[in-house]
Design a protein that fits this description.
With 222 residues, this protein is mainly alpha-helical. It is built from 11 helices and 2 strands; from the N terminus they run H-H-H-E-E-H-H-H-H-H-H-H-H. The chain has a single domain, classed as Cytochrome Bc1 Complex, Chain D, domain 2 (Orthogonal Bundle), CATH 1.10.760.10. Strand 1 and strand 2 form a beta hairpin.
């Protein structure tokens, strides 16, 4: 019996992979926040407790996600699946989710923030030092006015817990090598422009801004 050439085998595998991806994409429907109510049990244990702190691999409050855009939440979960974000707990959770789960959970948390009062007014003006850092990083170009009107898959930053923001920005400096590393090339380039004290200043300012982000206590999910 003749064997297939390596080239033919490779082409066959590539075609099969593309067909599988296409079929998988067709199976994913628009996110359903009602369906997500049965899927968020693993989320509310951390994100449903106000001020809850992660203790491994670094201590910080877990981020508020109610009110973030569905696009951002989906992008973050896919990044954990791919290993671009290396937080061990979140990687394990994301790995257990299907594309449909991610779509459902993402729209759920976006909608969840809309049921709560939005902030009014502008944030306080940054100090001259912080203003220079914001301009150096060109933060508003992606995260929007008052760091609360982001474009595309970027997150709202305003009012997010400052200790989480600091750890997140610092993690981009590791190029994904550490247990909390992140490998996004755009954010890695931005984060590397700053020293740790400068990142701390930025994080403290960001955390002081009025926010549309919320933590909805677990009892309110039911």
């Amino acid at each position: 019996m003749k064997t297939l050439s390596p080239l033919i085998c490779s082409l066959g595998l590539a075609v099969a992979s593309l067909l599988t991806q296409a079929a998988h994409a067709q199976e994913t429907k628009p996110g359903d926040p009602v369906a997500a109510q049965k899927k968020v049990a693993m989320c509310i244990g951390c994100h449903g407790i106000v001020g809850y702190q992660a203790s491994f691999p670094e201590v910080h409050r877990v981020p508020m996600i109610s009110g973030q855009s569905a696009k951002y939440i989906a992008a973050a979960l896919h990044a954990y699946q791919k290993g671009e974000r290396k937080h061990p707990t979140m990687r394990g959770i994301a790995a257990s989710l299907t594309d449909q789960d991610i779509a459902d959970i993402s729209v759920y948390y976006e909608a969840n923030g809309k049921n709560l009062p939005a902030h009014t007014g502008k944030g306080r003006a940054p100090s001259a030092e912080v203003d220079a850092l914001l301009k150096k990083g060109n933060c508003a170009s992606c995260h929007g006015a008052d760091l609360n009107k982001p474009i595309d898959v970027y997150p709202k930053l305003a009012g997010q817990y400052e200790d989480y923001v600091f750890v997140a920005m610092k993690s981009y400096q590791t190029e994904g090598k550490g247990p909390i590393g992140r490998g996004n090339p755009i954010m890695a380039a931005q984060a590397k422009m700053f020293t740790l004290p400068e990142l701390k200043l930025l994080a403290n300012y960001i955390g002081s801004l009025p926010s549309d982000l919320k933590t909805v206590p677990q009892s309110k999910f039911r």
